[in-house]
Amino acid sequence: MDAAVTPTTRPTKSRNSQLPQLPPTSPAEEALRLSEEKFATAFRLSPDMILIATQADGRCLDVNAACLHHTGYTRDEIIGHTTRELSWWNNPDDHSKLLEQFERDGAVHGLEVEYRRKSGEIGYAVLYAEPIIIDGEPCVIAMAQDVTEYRQAQADLQSRNNELDAFARTVAHDLKSPLGNIVGFGEYLQARPDLPETTRQDFINTIVRNAFKMESIIDELRLLAKIRTGDAPLQPLDMSRLVGEAQHRLTFMIAESSAVIAAPDHWPAALGYGPWVKEVWINYLDNAIKYGSQPPHIELGGEVLANHLVRCWVKHDGPGQPPELETQLFQPFPQLSTVRATGYGLGLSIARQVVEKMGGQVGVDNAPGGCRFWFTLPAAD
What we know:
21% strand, Beta-Lactamase, alpha+beta, five-stranded antiparallel β-sheet, five-stranded mixed β-sheet, 2 domains, Heat Shock Protein 90
């Protein structure tokens, strides 16, 4: 077999012997090649944004895939342009700080910046930059770690902390008044056993009324905990039953105020979670009794809207709301200070969260001769 192959391969061997021989790779050259391969791999696969630009005019020479992903630009849109031409700097001061720090220290380490994506969205990044020489030209290699999700998480946490703090103040405020009445009237009854029976009964009624108020606040807190920790199944609602149960919960308040409540015999079919919808009715009726005329005349109603929603409302004949207050009544706890000055507070804020959790909205309208609080729910097919 060797004899057969030799005549065939002899011409090739002869030609190969005439080719110039490459010098053997030195250890330094091999090390450089391996280093360049490692750099190219790290550049290509890094999850952080990496950009190489000239020092002279800041024009981009290369970017990695992560940079394209986070900014939303294509490679052709970036190469040959400066970051200012691409309007990447949401805050021009960030670019000035970058140049100042690079000029002063010869590098940039940990500069927090805001950058604008191609979509117009704002991102946040921590920027690092070092000088580098490429083909004899001074350049800059910049790496940016996107921290947008982290910044958003921080903002959400701060918002939750602020809300929790305001919530604690709101609850303390709302519980303090009825608790103070219970303690005050109870101590007075203890100290004055000689009080007339009618006076004693009035004091006992006041204690019971304030105890019911505290119970209502505690029920609202339990409801709030539920709407924050889970979803509720939306089912066809028996609105007449829910309205009746809400009025039953407020029996003492209705009787004491001599409130007159008119409700329709039939309600439009809606979807929701019964226990939550009942709490909304309780909050709306409670407010209508408090802020209607004396005695309050309250009208309940419902209608089907064009966008496959059902709107229910509670209308009372008390004074309307100032326009500047209408947008604040249902605000989360941090904004409740202004609202509480008028007597509205925890209940309406919770009502908003409950209804929005079920896919609806809440609102208030100043109607002739009164004020109408409404909420929407998905219509049942």
